[in-house]
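G.,

No rush on this.
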Amino acid sequence: MFTFPATVNFDEETGSYAISFRDFNALQTEAFSEDDIELEAIEGLTAAIGEYIESRIPIPEPEPAVAGEFIVHLPVLTCLKAALHNAMIQTGTRKADLARKLNHKGPQIDRLLDVAHASKVETLEQALYLLGYEVSVSVKTV
């Protein structure tokens, strides 16, 4: 779904790990230990997606990873919110339109799109369905 490739480089001068994403050119984050790289990458990417949603900018489809990159797996709720945001843009659906379809009030739609809010998966699934999208979940061993 939304799994983005990232690169990490150790900066000897600062003693930190610089994390960057090809799909989000302006996004740079850092970790101060090797153990924190994945967590910092997820947090930085989630924040960037939140900014894209607030700015009403479509979230890019992830490019395939190339040698030297690692994959950042976003939380399921963040993926669903990103998918809903993109679906709203693709279908020309305004927040007020979605609120009417879901029989919700406007602020509820704002929370539904807020990556920091713990929305119900069922509500996001229903919203996507009403816009003509089907949610599918897969689980696999790593």
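When you get to it, here's the other one too:
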Amino acid sequence: MINNVKTQTSAQGVDRRTLKFEIVLVMALSLGQSAVYSLVSFADKVTRAPLGEQTTTMNNPLNTREYFDLTYQLLDILFALVPVVLALYLMRRSTGTSLPMIGFDFRKPGRDALWGAGLFAAMGLGTLGVYAAGRALGITTALSTANLGDYWWSIPVLMLSAARHAVLEEVIMLGFLFTYAGKLKVGLWTTILASALIRGSYHLYQGIGPMIGNVIMGVIFGWFYHRYGRVMPLVIAHFLLDAIGFVGYLVLGPAIGIGA
């Protein structure tokens, strides 16, 4: 009880300037940084050739030697999650918000899994539709989502990469950002739209179609998080989307003529 009182008092003592600085700090070390690079990448692509004629590769090799590549891949995943730890620490210190309070826990595994699977099904169909439309209109690059090579560890690493993206994006874009926006008295729909636009911006390197699709997904995920107060179903849905996209491409791509 004493610890809880101290946490609440500390959170109440944090001023608005500190909260804003912590938002900027976390975003600059994670998805805000990705958004800036994505915008530059998009500018490079649109001034180079039509988007429809280009290919965006993901999950690329980091070394030509197999086990050094594996080491670099695992280190890349590990260090990409450090901003999540920072965000959770700052939330606890500055706002008194714990993991259960944002629903980033395993208290409701069945319900979270059902919601996650349902959101995955809905978002998966929508993603495919937006991607197909974008390709038809020439505003989306072709996506090559798994380029690690034919190693025994390729699928496990792709699964870990999917988990990394799911945890990083949903914890920061929803749990962290919404918590801080609430403390700063930012309106609900302003928060939802800002989160969705940032989400879309760091996917812009793939083309306009994925950017639009992710903005829509961000609005839906933001509303869901506000309504139910749990990040975990959204982490599950995001993980399934990426895992199927990465592993499915690796396994089925060559069979249908699109893999390496």
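Residues 2-254 form one domain. Confidence is low (pLDDT under 50) at residues 1-11, 255-260.

Enjoy the weekend,
O.
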